Amino acid sequence: MNGLIRDFHLALRTLLRSPGFLIVAVTSLGLSIGANTAIFSFVNGVFFKPLPCAEPDRLVAVMEMPAASSVGANSPQNFLDWQRQNTVFESIAAYYNYASVSLGGVAEAVQIPGARVSARYFDILRLRTVLGRTFAEDEDQPGKDHVVILSHNLWSTDFGADPKIVGTSIRLNDEPYTVIGVLPKDSPLERGRPRLWRPLSFAPSEMTRNVHSLGTVARLKPSVSLEQARQEMDLIGKRIAADFPVSNKGWEVRVYPLSRTLLTRG
User: Domain range for residue 31?
Assistant: First the structure.
């Protein structure tokens, strides 16, 4: 203890002889503590609190990934097979969160971060709109997909919070889209990257098993456990790998609680 006290006094005298260094040291320490406090507050608010959705324990992420990897994404054709073949999910939806669009009809066209999602995406998350509606069952089919849902922030900032926005046409990538809904201000999606959502309809050029770029979210049926879902999706994945070895050999299908996936993947 005496040695510790002597070391402390020596360090203090050294710092007092160099006031400039003392100021820098104290400032750096303060900034570090402040930054870590801010990071903890953000992570705690976004990840550690329960998902603000109905029955969040039934929400899962479904991913395909190489056997030795812990990171994965899904291909369109494999996702469509999962959608047709599974018996464990109430619904399953794919999403792509990096589908920015050019918003026209304003003074100067601007790029808006957007997402493309399956029609049942909002139903799975039990999210509703403050104006209008979410996607209908068939609106993720080609020819029916020119509809869009706006974030509350985009509606407020770029459309002046127009209460009559639903039913109007806007231009995205120089094509007309009908606004069908606006999310509420407190929607959990408001804190994410996308500011608008379009249906995920696959063009012929996107119908592949080789390109893995989709996320997938699903809601377990009330009578199905996480382990039962894992077992069935593992069998479906193995069946697809046997039928399409060139694209799927060495890939596995894994099912995780959605909250865990959000925490580990960011």
Answer: 2-48
